Prior knowledge:
By secondary structure, the chain is α/β, with parallel strands linked by helices. The chain is 44% helix and 20% strand.
Amino acid sequence: MERRMFFALGLAGMGVLAMRDTARALKYYPKASDKKWAVLYGTWCGSARDAAVWISEGMGGIADAFDVRENADLKQFDNIVVGSAIRMGKVSPEIEKYLAANRMWLKDKVRGLFTVCGNMQKPVTAEVMKAQITDQLAPLCGVKDVPGHVFLGRVTPILLEPEVREMMKPMGEYDNLKRAECMAFGREILG
């Protein structure tokens, strides 16, 4: 290999390594909007993550989705949609903690709420909406009268903790989360 080529490849390699940390920080960048939108979600096995991304797609891709475990600073966003997976009738502990710590500034930015739950694979009723959105997630966010939706979820046993996997064994693996339904909710939020 020629000496000049060796140095050029070496410099290129060092440049790639130097940019590696920056590249790792990159995330999905949505389409431009005059308002900054975010979808914050808490999840156990990824169903709420998928719902969050699909809600953003329904909004035309203008919202960025954040897992609450990232502890992202969302104060820069004008509008926020909040969602959580539900297990044993409760939102994830991480989203509950985040909402409690940030409720004062967050409440004025929340534009929609959603939950994702198995609901024993039964249709979502008004009682389920009330229990999960009106009586649980809305008070945690300090909001009333924002659009809300309960999506049926899915179970992927391999992603569950061993004790939960054993408890869910009779239900088997299922997937009732619908992309089209999540996208329609995104469009509803934009009005």
